[in-house]
């Protein structure tokens, strides 16, 4: 692989992740500033904005991926970055809630380019190295997840609009970098006609589901993200109710989790793949998640929960290994469609999971709860992970020998 184009791809994924976390620290104050009312009302609006963002990612993931199969990765990525920069400018000057909502609509569409970025990695990676290189994409996302909130908190000292201007500058600067270094990979027989039937999210999932061995893997991928979403959905509430942690401690714990995810997906996954192969790696990730979720469901010790963070993050080996398993099951001219469908699957999980997990938390922490159990959402996530493991073990096997992946 050529280093600079890959660096651009990783920066694009990292900026996508940073753009989400970068603005989180200022959203409550910003929403109140533009007419969101009380803090409670601002929180409701914040939920609407987050859900809107996830819905747009779900709907447009396959569309953007399909467009990149037809017109190329380069134009799709560069145009999306430029639109993303303009979107952050819009939010930086927005004086009304409807403008913030419009900004999240546009932002969700442009963030759907993660499917195109991952498809580019598939284009430049031989089949036996794809899972490991997908791990680099996951590591870049994890790094953005860590850096975004930290940088957003620092920039908030300069006003509620400062993080948006910074995010706009990052997106525009990366677009310029990509214009200089990114080479097109969709040429010749890799070009695929665009199809609206395949490029709507449900159509894309159905289309891929007809491929041998892919249906169950898609289900496993979806279940993983439903369980994984318990962390952003309820962690802050859980930590406050169970450990009485301060917001600063909660932020540090989330940053530590993101950092460990980046380290594991960027480094640990390579020796694990070499030792266990892709299928064995996914099994190991599920077993680790079951242990972590089970412990968090019942622990009352904050220090032990913090110490468990590295173990909980090991589950991050699951997505790149699953992506590698599915990538070799689809044609080379359908890699963008595959990654688009996976983006939609994870976005759909991020839409549904917070509703289920927050309801479960509320049900087991209110005054009428049958038993006070703030960790109930983690128990549910553990049960879902067991279901995902059974679905994986029931999926058809391919030849999947351990190998030594290279960058």
Question: If you had to describe this structure to a student in words, what would you say it looks like?
Answer:
- The protein has 407 residues and is mainly alpha-helical.
- The protein has 2 domains: 183 residues, MFS general substrate transporter like domains (Growth Hormone, Chain: A), CATH 1.20.1250; 197 residues, Growth Hormone, Chain: A, CATH 1.20.1250.
- The protein is 77% helix and 0% strand.
Mean pLDDT: 79
What is the number of domains? 2
CATH fold-level name of the largest domain: Growth Hormone, Chain: A
How far the N terminus sits from the C terminus, by CA atoms, comes to 7 Å
Largest sheet: none
CATH architecture of the largest domain: Up-down Bundle
**Could you name the CATH class of the largest domain?**
Mainly Alpha
Provide the CATH superfamily of the largest domain. Answer: MFS general substrate transporter like domains
Please state the CA-atom Rg, rounded to the nearest Å.
20 Å
Helix share bin: over 70%
Number of β-strand runs: 0
- What would you call the shape? globular
How many DSSP H or I helices? 18
Short description:
This protein is an all-alpha fold. It has helices spanning 3-22, 27-33, 39-71, 73-93, 97-111, 114-123, 130-155, 162-181, 196-199, 201-209, 214-228, 230-243, 247-298, 302-307, 309-313, 318-327, 335-363, 376-393.
Key attributes of the depicted protein:
407 residues, mainly alpha, Growth Hormone, Chain: A, 2 domains, 18 helices, 77% helix, globular
């Amino acid at each position: 692989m050529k280093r600079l184009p890959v660096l651009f791809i990783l920066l694009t994924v990292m900026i996508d992740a940073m753009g989400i976390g970068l603005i989180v620290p200022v959203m409550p104050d910003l929403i109140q500033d533009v007419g969101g009312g009380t803090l409670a009302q601002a929180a409701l609006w914040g939920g609407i904005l987050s859900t809107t963002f996830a819905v747009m990612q779900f709907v447009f993931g396959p569309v953007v991926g399909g467009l990149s199969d037809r017109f190329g990765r380069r134009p799709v990525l560069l145009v999306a970055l430029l639109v993303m920069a303009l979107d952050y400018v819009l939010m930086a000057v927005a004086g009304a809630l409807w403008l913030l909502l419009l900004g999240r609509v546009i932002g969700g569409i442009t963030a759907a380019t993660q499917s195109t970025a991952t498809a580019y990695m598939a284009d430049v990676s031989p089949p036996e190295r794809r899972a490991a290189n997908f791990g680099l994409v996951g590591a870049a996302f994890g790094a953005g997840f860590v850096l975004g909130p930290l940088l957003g908190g620092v920039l908030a000292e300069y006003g509620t609009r400062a993080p948006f201007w910074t995010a706009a500058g990052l997106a525009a600067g990366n677009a310029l970098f990509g214009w200089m270094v990114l080479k097109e990979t969709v040429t010749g027989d890799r070009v695929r006609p665009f199809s609206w039937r395949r490029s709507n999210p449900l159509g894309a999932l159905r289309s891929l589901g007809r491929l041998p061995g892919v249906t169950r893997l898609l289900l496993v991928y979806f279940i993983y993200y439903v369980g994984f979403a318990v962390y952003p959905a309820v962690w802050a509430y859980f930590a406050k109710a169970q450990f009485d942690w301060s917001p600063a401690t909660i932020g540090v714990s989330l940053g530590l989790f993101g950092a460990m995810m980046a380290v594991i997906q960027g480094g640990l996954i390579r020796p694990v793949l070499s030792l266990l192969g892709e299928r064995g790696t996914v099994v190991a990730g599920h077993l680790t998640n079951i242990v972590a979720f089970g412990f968090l469901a019942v622990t009352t010790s904050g220090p032990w929960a913090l110490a468990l963070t590295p173990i909980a993050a090991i589950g991050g080996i699951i997505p790149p290994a699953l992506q590698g398993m599915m990538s070799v099951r689809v044609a080379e001219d359908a890699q963008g469609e595959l990654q688009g469908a996976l983006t939609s699957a994870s976005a759909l999980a991020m839409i549904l999971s917070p509703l289920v997990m927050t309801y479960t938390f509320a049900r087991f922490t209110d005054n009428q709860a049958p038993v006070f159990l703030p960790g109930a959402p983690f128990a549910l996530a553990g049960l879902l992970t067991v279901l995902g493991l059974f679905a994986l073990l029931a999926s058809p096997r391919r030849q999947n020998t351990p190998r030594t992946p290279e960058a």
